[in-house]
Amino acid sequence: MPYNAKIKVTLRQSILDVQGKAVEHALKNLGYGSVESARIGKYIEVTINEHDPLQAERVCNEICQKLLSNPVMENYSFELEKVN
Amino acid sequence: MADVTVGVVVFPGSNCDHDTEHAAGSFQGTKPVMLWHNEHDLQGAKVIILPGGFSYGDYLRAGSIARFSPIMQEVIEFARKGFPVLGICNGFQVLLESGLLEGALSRNRDKKFLCCRTNIKPVNCSTIFTSLYKEDEVLSVPIAHGEGNYFAPPEVIESLEEHNQIVFKYTDSLGQVSDEANPNGSLQNIAGIINRAGNVLGLMPHPERASEQLLGSVDGRRLFESLYSHAAAM
Q1: Catalytic annotation present for B145
Q2: Is the CB of A15 inside 8 Å of chain B's CB atoms?
Q3: With an 8 Å Cβ cutoff, is A13 touching chain B?
Q4: How sure is the predictor about B2, in pLDDT bands with cuts at 50, 70 and 90?
């Protein structure tokens, strides 16, 4: 059974997120005074054809570190879901 | 000068490859060859240039996919053997993604794509790329990028400084390094850095667009001249 990986890649807190800032200002301009901040990241879905969940997790970590995120400025997290 | 074959790498989405070929081929004894991303053959190049553009559409992150192309495996090997590699704009992004240089380039501080002339100054003229410049002279070289905001963790910046690896900084017309003269928010106004071994340089400004009088500036020309005179003597 393959796994669906739902991967989120976000800019590290120390990196200025200019897109997030622009969205934050737009929301405030729309009158949403309770909006404190907005940050923009990437959402990636990958289907991994592995049967062993540990192996699927290992592949997912590897692709995140190798290509999907840049560890100098980004963090990643993911959820694995079994595809039936 | 002995003949120098200069390999210009072409990724899908490169758009400064022909400008670079034109500039690279305008020196006596230099022969540019175009190297397609899917190839493994560097065609006898003594110098490799990664040009500007939007390799693979800048998908995911600028330079992130180009880094895994077949030609880059050869370029990384070439660089590790000590041969000179120059990355301009998107080429700089590819060098950072490939780990040949340290740090990363994020979105410009003011969110805009910047296409304008900037002033930079060489702050290290002892490299093979800058030997024909005078330290602190002000150069006029254009930039054209959306993601040129150089970032690296503090320990990397310290190490770059300690080993004299910062090569170009953005300045005002008088050569002052100031926040107003920083077009994109780069840490310490960094416009270009070199690796510790001194054979891999990446910079955001486009020296090939400042290589003949018709273009308004010839300040980028000496970068190629420095590099070729070194490569010819190799």
Answers
A1: no
A2: yes
A3: no
A4: low
Give residue B143's domain range: 4-233
Does residue B193 contact residue B201 with C-beta atoms inside 8 Å?
yes
Q: Looking at beta carbons, which residues of chain B come within 8 Å of A72?
A: 96, 103-104, 151-153
Q: Is B118 exposed, middle or buried (0-12, 13-18, 19+ CB in 10 A)?
A: buried
- Band (pLDDT 50/70/90 cuts) for residue B3 is confident
Answer whether A22 touches B (CB < 8 Å): yes
Listed by number, the residues of chain B in 184-223 with a beta carbon closer than 8 Å to a beta carbon of chain A are: 185
Q: How many domains does chain B have?
A: 1
User: CB distance from B13 to chain A under 8 Å?
Assistant: no
Residue B35's domain is classified under what CATH number?
A: 3.40.50.880
Extended strands (E) in A1-84? 3-11, 42-48, 74-82
- CATH fold of the domain at A3-82: Mth169; Chain: A , (3.30.1280)
d(CA A43, CA B184): 26
pLDDT at B1 over 80: no
- Say whether B89 is catalytic: yes
